[in-house]
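subagent[fold] <- orchestrator: predict structure for attached chain, return tokens only, no commentary.
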Amino acid sequence: MTYCVAMRLNAGLVFLSDSRTNAGVDHISTFRKMNVFEIPGDRVIVLMTSGNLSISQSIRQIIADYRTEAGESIWTVKSMYGAAQIVGQAIRVVHERDAKALQQFGIDFNVRMILGGQIGAEEPRLFLVYSAGNFIETHNESTYFQVGELKYGKPIIDRVITPASTLDEAAKCALISMDSTLRSNVSVGLPLDLLVYQANSLAVTHFVCIDEHNQYFQKIRREWGSHLKQVFESIDAPVWQDDTAQPDNVLANQPGLSQPLRMPAPPALEQIQGSTAPVCVQSVAQQDGNERQP
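subagent[fold] -> orchestrator:
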């Protein structure tokens, strides 16, 4: 599996991907999932992939070579929207070529891609491309995309990141998001690729490959866990229906409304509970004893 996250901010773009792939516990490998198409001074385009590795590698190669009917390629297209269209078309080319054969072997055509970057004077843009080749773009209310094992690292991004966040803040948040995923899912693993793109630079200036020896990532792993525990311990434990407690510390402050949804018992069970069951048992025992008397 994999985990990739990308954020679009007023200041630029942040991309982070892991490098673990697996086809079972005996087939775990390392493959980098971030690819950069760069012409310094003209464009920086970043592609991150998740899903079937053979499919995504085929798509990546077609993207690098593909030309539209108008003769445009990923290297010459005039907008990021046009670049997203090329990625979508490359996915459809591979689907048409391989999907039926893969299906015969029980393999789904499974791929998702994050595409982001800047071309010329256009603002930086970020897209999520699906298996069908269709895509969506970020907006200010939802300024990031994830693919792969996204659920573990999502809460921190939702609470922290806005379009006004700085690139350093977003990079830190992305690494914390990745650390949460690494701790909860063994199908995501080091090393990581982190690329921070400053708007209008039209060049890759901040990139690092992070392994288990990276001191900053180790610092995040230690301090994030420690601070989470401190915050957890600083929050008061709940008090149940105590009128003397502080109002924000009482968990059930409306006892009459705090009742579980109880299912009604079957009528036969109600009859048994309402009867004199012990007397009946005693009568049976006495009857059994009487039958044994000569």
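orchestrator: received. Logging for downstream: The chain has one domain: 3-229. The domain at 3-229 is CATH 3.60.20.10 (Glutamine Phosphoribosylpyrophosphate, subunit 1, domain 1).
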